[in-house]
Specification:
With 375 residues, this protein is an alpha/beta fold. The chain is built from ten helices and 16 strands.
């Protein structure tokens, strides 16, 4: 282990839901488990889930406080535990290499082994779920140093993918990549509706365009986000601030699809009411991919609509390590096609973390970036 490491890492932690994050000096573990890694963060980006946890909307964090938030991050390796020094693709890793990494997937449960669904791992060890007072202490991304669990997949970041984009790919984009795999083929004759113009929705726009969708319709806001969607190839943008009724939005989609509805609808917004709206604008025989509905609320919905439309509903959550690699490769392959920097907004220092959270809460920024000083 590198002898020059400090004893503690500066980290932004949740002390109590609903309160601003506080900067703490968190212990850096002196013992690195076999197959684990210690990294120094280069960049982290904010996700809506971070805000939900901080605000208390996610629930179940009481025993984990103080809790280092952040799960979209990239870092440089500073120490290895015993074991192979390779990433999950078998490529050599050395100190100083940049990586992104997954939650800890056990690799020994039915979901991991038989079903080949690591995102459903029965023993998944999640970042942002363990206290900063409990070994290995560094369990979140908003910290100068981070710990990569022994069972976490890790992927070396290509030199031509910038830090902030690599961080964003480690949640928002890999989630989209996984969802599109579960969705199946998109034809050139398909109209794809994307509900939501946040980071996940915008990446879904790019993916639908890259897959060759005949037309892409985006429903969301604010206007600045819809401008990015249009830049990335969306054909129609429906601003929810202007078309405020779900019934009107559904009618617009049906008007654009000869009254039948869209063959593919992607729920990427996380708004509870969007579910029934998405089903309504789906054509008979259509496919509905649900990614954004990560909340505890119920909605009023008549499931007979699914039967009458003979609709296919597809749920997708998180991703496997293969999707992390595919997300990085998608960024590389489409660097000249999509202006990825349009997704990224202001760079904040770690001590400005609460300003970044407020920007996310008010939708004034799409994807705030926490930049770490690597001098």
């Amino acid at each position: 282990m590198t002898g020059a490491l400090p004893a503690t890492s500066r980290a932004a932690a949740l002390i109590a839901p609903g309160r601003p994050l506080e900067l703490l000096d968190v212990e850096i573990p002196t013992v690195i488990e076999r197959d684990a890694l210690l990294v120094r963060m280069t960049s982290a980006t904010l996700c809506g889930t971070d805000v939900h946890v901080a605000d208390g909307a996610a629930g179940g964090v009481g025993a984990a406080l103080p809790l280092i938030l952040g799960h979209e991050m990239v870092g440089r390796i500073v120490a290895f535990g015993d074991g192979p020094r390779t990433d999950s693709l078998g490529r050599p890793l050395t100190e100083g290499d940049r990586i992104v990494w997954t939650h800890g997937m056990c690799g020994r449960c039915r979901a991991c082994v038989l079903d080949r669904e690591p995102s459903l791992c029965e023993n998944r060890r999640r970042y942002m779920s363990e206290s900063a007072r409990t070994y290995p202490f560094l369990n979140g991304g908003f910290s100068e140093y981070g710990y990569v669990y022994p069972t976490a997949g890790r992927v070396r970041v290509p030199d031509d993918v910038p830090d902030a984009l690599a961080a964003a790919s480690a949640c928002a984009l890999r989630t989209v990549i996984h969802g599109f795999e579960r969705l199946g083929r998109i034809a050139a004759t398909d109209t794809v509706v994307v509900q939501g113009a946040g980071p996940v929705g915008l990446f879904a726009v790019a993916k639908a365009v890259a897959e060759g969708a005949g037309r892409v319709i985006v429903i969301g806001g604010p206007a600045a986000r819809l401008e990015v969607a249009a830049q990335w190839g969306a054909d129609v943008c429906i601003d929810v601030a202007e078309v405020t009724s779900g019934r009107e939005r559904s009618a617009l989609v049906k008007d654009l699809t000869d009254g039948r509805g869209a063959p593919v609808v992607l729920e990427m917004s996380g708004i509870p009411a969007a579910f029934a709206e998405g089903i309504d604008m789906l054509r008979p025989g259509g496919r509905y991919l649900v990614v954004g509905q990560a909340h505890q609320r119920t909605v009023d919905f008549n499931p007979s609509v699914i039967m009458h439309k003979q609709a296919t509903l597809i749920g997708s959550r998180s991703a496997g390590v293969d999707h992390y690699w595919k997300a990085l490769e998608f960024l590389r392959a489409n660097a000249d096609r999509f202006a990825w920097d349009a997704l990224l907004s202001h760079r904040y220092r770690l001590d400005e973390i609460n300003e970044a959270f407020e920007a996310m809460r008010t939708w004034s920024e799409i994807k705030p970036v926490i930049a770490f000083d690597q001098a």
